[in-house]
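Incident log, structure service

09:12 report received: a user says their structure output differs between two submissions of the same chain.
09:20 pulled the input from the user's history:
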Amino acid sequence: MATETLTLGKALNAGLRKALENDPKVVIMGEDVGKLGGVFRITDGIQKDFGDQRVIDTPLAESGIIGTAVGLAIRGFRPVCEIQFDGFVYPAYDQIVSQVAKMHYRSQGKVRIPMVIRIPYGGGIGAVEHHSESPEAYFAHTAGLKVVSCASPQDAYSMIQQAIASDDPIVFLEPKRRYWEKGPVELDAPLADAYPLHAARVARPGTDATVLAYGPMVRTALDAATAAAEDGRELEVIDLRTLSPLDLTAAYESVKRTGRCVVVHEAPGNLGLGSEIAARITEECFYSLESPVLRVTGFDTPYPAARVEEEYLPDLDRVLDAVDRTFGW
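09:34 re-ran on a clean worker, output below:
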């Protein structure tokens, strides 16, 4: 089976192309996705190859993009909407919560909304205001939406195709700071053989403590595990991959073995995904825990100016500090 080394961004491009080839009802729409190829060039060259009826440059109106996509989805198309930056999604939030998430339920299953909303999210690229948000909890909290986040080129390639093929509306979060990181991708692998979309995966096995992460923080957690190994401590890193529905089966199994758990995400800690995950692990693994479930998150402030964002973002040292604290109980 042919394997190529691609960046995460190129893997997304390849996955989108594959989806367009496989289903004539798939359309891509968003600001500058066509001629420019997207601000991060994720859709680079796709309009040239598939035409402007399937890769559509929209006005600068996020609510209009989502509203149009809802109509297309009801009529049998599979729209893939790109929101240029995480902080630009809020004008479309009303459409997403009031229509996208509820249409299937309100129609008693008669109407499906098979659409994907792609959102580059998170910090670490030195961007200006409103370009480095982590809004995942808003969407994961919304019944009727599914939310996933890729962390590797292989997952980017397969997960975007799986999301487009799904009959459910899916918010697809892309870790923008990882767009340029490379990894192997099996381009010829049948989609039916891909790892399930709504399932977590053990990214690195370990025996001493469990670190749960998703999206941009998976690489940070893996780096922390590598550093910890130099001191003789083996961390098991689990890439959650799906935020709604949450799949914590692998996490439960891991924590019952290690007795310790640290949850890592970029979003602020207050009412973040880490809170829900910690609560569920405490309920399920209470008698196996040697210490409380700890969280390493962004701070409860608006995202700071680029010159100080590294002080805000969880890093290797903060993860290792949390792991050390789990051994102090």
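09:41 both user submissions now match this output. Likely a transient worker issue. Closing.
09:42 reviewer note: The chain has twelve helices and 14 strands. The chain has a mean pLDDT of 97.
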